[in-house]
Amino acid sequence: MQIKSPKYIYDFFNGVIQGENVKHYKKLYKEIDFIYKTRDNQLSPDTVMYEVYSFNEGGSNILLWGLTVIYPITINGECNMTRGHFHEDREEPEIYFGCSGEGLLLYLDSQGKIFAEKVFKGSLHYIHGNYAHRLVNTGDDTLRVGACWREAAGHDYKSIDEKPFPNRVYKKDGKIDIA
Ligand code: 6PG
Ligand code: NI
User: Residue of the nearest CA to atom 8 in ligand 1?
Assistant: First the structure.
């Protein structure tokens, strides 16, 4: 039996994926400042709020692997978070798994009903296709969350822009406050 070296380095715990066909982008404050309740003029517009890695093996009916790295930044007391989205195809689920740091995974259905799960190293989250999902970094360290989903899922950001998550997460004197 031939033992092959891995095509990818899946270093989820340290927050890196390396290899061929790895896509990587940084989300800057100026690109997503509208998702937070208020603007923070002290924060440079070029601050990296979070980074997303993903890759696929190729072929059809592809499962993508990903990693989201969210920095411990507060925006006038509001915890840093991802933009949040529904999948374009509401039948496509996704799995998230906590790699490091502490956070919340917010779920929102089309009726506006919201709930959250705690995210931590080793936590596993099954996101049904009909839920929008957003990660919030509630800790003092970087939050790293791995993900697996089908490429066919797509991203629907428009529905969240039109009907945003009804709750926000703040940190006051080290305590989490959901408003
Ligand atoms: C996906 C995943 C995940 C997500 C990132 C960034 O469906 O692709 O849920 O990779 O895109 O965590 O979050 P936003 O896409 O909401 O900015
Ligand atoms: Ni998703």
Answer: 155
The closest of 103, 46, 35, 99 to 72, measured between CA atoms, is: 103
Across residues 41-48, what is the average pLDDT?
97
Q: What is the mean pLDDT of residues 111-140?
A: 97
d(CA 116, CA 127): 11
Distance of CA 36 to the CA centre of its chain: 15
* Residue 112, domain extent: 8-178
Q: State the distance from the centre of ligand 1 to the C-alpha of 133, rounded, in angstroms.
A: 8
Q: Is the pLDDT of residue 10 over 80?
A: no
Overall number of domains in the chain: 1
Segment 106-125, tens digit of pLDDT = 999 999 999 999 999 999 99
- Does residue 11 have a pLDDT over 90? no
How far is the C-alpha of 44 from the C-alpha of 176, rounded, in Å?
Answer: 24
Q: Has residue 57 been placed in a domain?
A: yes
36 in any annotated domain: yes
Q: What atom in ligand 1 is closest to the CA of residue 96?
A: 9
Q: Report if residue 79 sits inside a domain.
A: yes
Ligand nearest to the CA of 68: 1
